[in-house]
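Subject: complex prediction, re-run

Hi both,

The earlier run crashed halfway through, so I resubmitted it with identical inputs.
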Amino acid sequence: MKSILRIALVATGLLAGAGTASAQLEANLGALDDENAVGYLTPLSTALSATMNSSVFKTGHVPKSGASIHLQANIMGVTFDDEDRTYSPSDPVGFQSTESVDAPTVIGDTQAVEQQGEAGTRLWHPGGFDVENFTVAAPQLEIAGFMGTRAIFRWISLDLGDTDLGKLELFGIGVQHSISQYLDPDFPVDLAVGGFYQNFDIGDGLVDTQMFQFMVTGSKQYGVLEPYLGLGFDTFDMSADYTDEQDFSIEVDFEKENNLHLTAGGRLNFQYFMIHGEMNLAAETGFAAGISLGL
Amino acid sequence: MRQKLLSLTGLCLTTMLLAGSGCPLIPSIEEKVVQLAAGASVILEFEADGIINDKGEKVVFDFGQELDLLDIIDDAGIDVEDVIEITLAGVSYRVTVPDPDPTRRIVDSSVTVGRLGDDPQAALVTAFSDDAGVAYDFRTAPLDAAGVAVVNSMLAEILADIQSNQNPTLAASATWSGRSEPASEDTDFTWELKVDITVVGEITVDAPE
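This time it finished cleanly. Structure:
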């Protein structure tokens, strides 16, 4: 069996210290039918949506000409809400509950919850890992200077070594196009519109996520400081494939998420490097920061 | 000068953002004790072959070996001494080989269970009726508290054996009795009873804060 929490741990660069945790999630998932597995894992889905769709567009300024290239390191994080910590489980086949319970999600309390059933049966719902924050990191390459268009790429391919997950792969591609070049030169802010597609895959389909973001970004430069605002929407589609206690393969399709996305941030533009920080209101409220080097 | 001040301000804001207490951008790892649950099942197969419409069929099995609890908790990464409890979570049934007569039904059937030699055995599934002329996936069985208690006591015995480093053998039997209709012709179908258990235990993990 393979785990999903490990994705979070891998993404945060913490796999080495958390291998045990990820192995336990495999067992936890094995105790859940597919419907309850969705409830258990949903906070990770929303967290991935909120984080992976951050730090993509950080300016409305896209030069019409003059080639530029930047390599950027992003770190994106969200803080979970209290309501993300529990879910209402449904009865798996074979079990008839006689009481309702709030069961922990993967980020919820570490204590398992017992549910009473017909004729004295009892079903245990696994505890979570008591996680308050979720963090991912991603490199990003930006190439601009062709007809007011910037190409954006994200790519990671990691062999997860002695874990049983195989590979972690992130691929993202998108463009941002200047609207300002079609507007009056005196228009007070730089405006650009962009779209970005990402695919995040762990272990050859263990977890497969597809993300798309559309965003209009406005910014204005004050010396080296460039505050920016973005308004757009995100789509997020995730599926997970794991095995139950009978070694049957279970594919869990999460409900497709569509979220409005509001970004407010600022960037410091120096000659060879830039630093940005931003706040995002989307599937979850989160923060992101990054540094980029380039010409 | 103004540019330098702006730069400095920006850097300070970024630093404050990153250094904030509980900042989601600075993950930290801590040791946690997590109660996890693992599931397992034992499947008993009953063959209804010939005229057994009013007779029972007895299945003898080694509960300890069929369950293989040691393997389950080992897969889950739980140390034997850290198992908190093992309980019966539910029972379900399905028809795997349907009767040639698509109208065939199991009627007023029950399944009793107990250690091999127990007499009488305790009722586990009572008074259920369902189709036997079509194959279908598992459906929840109506349970009786007496049988649930017996299964739970056997599970506790298996756990105790494992925790004392003994091979968990526990001979048990389950007996199906009831009728199938129509009674005017022989029955010929196969059905299964799935006994689901959950094991809860504690493990210590390093996980994000």
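The CA atoms of residues 22 and 209 of chain B lie 9 Å apart.

- K.
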